[in-house]
Amino acid sequence: MLPVSYNDWTLVSLSPWPFALKLAGVLVVIAACALVVWSYRAARRRWPLGILRVLGALVVMGFLIEPALQLRVVRKVRNRLAVVVDRSRSMTLASTDGRSRYDLVLAMFEDGRDELAALGESHVVELFDLEGPLSAGSLATAPTGERTDLLGALERARDAGAGRPLAGLVLISDGVDNAGMEGVGRGTLSAAAEKRLQALGAPLSTLSVADAQSFKDIAIVDVVVDEFAFVHNTVEADVRVEAAGFGSVSLVMTLKREGEVVGAHEVAVQEGESASVQFKFKPDEIGEFVYTVSVP
Q1: Rounded distance, CA 3 to CA 17, Å?
Q2: How far apart are the two ends of the chain, measured CA to CA in Å?
Q3: Quick one: which of 83, 100, 204, 193 has its CA closest to 144?
Q4: In terms of domains, do 252 and 293 share one?
Q5: CA 66 to the chain's CA centroid
């Protein structure tokens, strides 16, 4: 048998009894032990007798609980970050500074090279265009796409992971979609598009390369929190938010666990600056839970 290198451990109970029965048994033993020790309060040898009774109680609780040390091998699997780049012909249009929208995209990748490398240490960063996987060589070529189906591209990027968990999606586009994503009113989503977006099952961030003067966005840019937490211990989550195109704005940030609100903070964000909020909460039960932070 090959040697196994364990890197984690936890305490478990091997007793087949239900948790409520084990808890009741432990409480009875503690109460009985306390009563016996109290009865020795006036005895000459109360300390030796009390210690012996406590040790005996610990042995009895050991039989009730049957504690054991469980050794584990924990390996972290890097999840995916899918970056979808709009390479349709509308991306060749000029921006306000004379460069094409796609030139702005290439500049984003060049300026963010270090950030992408840092993301690659904790995530598998995958590139896609509107048709499918995108290589670094193809990224540098001029866009020629005839059809802009942003939702379809996001769904293909989501499904391309071969079972690897998806951390999030990033869409870089001018927002011009000609596949029926827009609703009745200008700038709105159709009901079908909203359902498809909700079905993506992962956070979606967008980067616009359209006219910056008309660009408005509120973004949670960073969340710092431990991946593991202990029941009834305080957990701190530091969240940083930015707003563009709104001037000075007051935002209400909400923390939810499995869709249930567990905290909210109001924060003032200045144009061109970021603001930070710290959430504190105590998990009240064991298990895996999804916590989300959102702004309106």
Answers
A1: 33
A2: 56
A3: 100
A4: yes
A5: 36
In a domain, 260, yes or no: yes
- Residue 16's identity, in one-letter code, is P
* β-sheet bridge partners, residue 100: 94
* Residues 23, 38 share a domain: yes
- Which CATH number characterizes residue 252's domain? 2.60.40.10
Whole-number Å distance between alpha carbons of 89 and 249: 36
* % of the chain exceeding 70 in pLDDT: 92
Asked whether residue 2 is assigned to any structural domain, the reply reads no
Residues 244 and 199: their CA atoms lie apart, in Å, by 27
Taking only the tens place, the pLDDT of each residue in 271-288 is: 767 888 888 888 888 888
Write down the residue that tokens 């048709």 correspond to: 131
Domain count, the chain: 3
d(CA 258, CA 51): 47
> How would you label 69-92 residue by residue, b for 16+ Cβ within 10 Å and e otherwise?
eeeeeeeeeeebbbbbbbbbebbe
- Please tell me the pTM assigned to this model: 0.52
Last residue of a domain, one of 195, 215, 235: 215
What confidence category does residue 187 fall into, taking pLDDT thresholds of 50, 70 and 90? low
DSSP assignment string, the chain: -------EEEEEE---S-HHHHHHHHHHHHHHHHHHHHHTTTSTTHHHHHHHHHHHHHHHHHHHH-EEEEEE---PPPEEEEEEE--BGGGGSB-TTSSBHHHHHHHHHHHTHHHHHHHHHHEEEEEE-SSSB--HHHHTSPP-BS---HHHHHHHHHHTTTTPPEEEEEEEE-----SS-B-SSTT-B-HHHHHHHHTT-S-EEEEE-S-GGG--EEEEEEEE--S---TTS-EEEEEEEEEESSSSEEEEEEEEETTEEEEEEEEEE-TT-EEEEEEEE---SSS---EEEE--
Yes or no: say if 57 and 51 are a contact pair by the CB < 8 Å rule. Answer: no
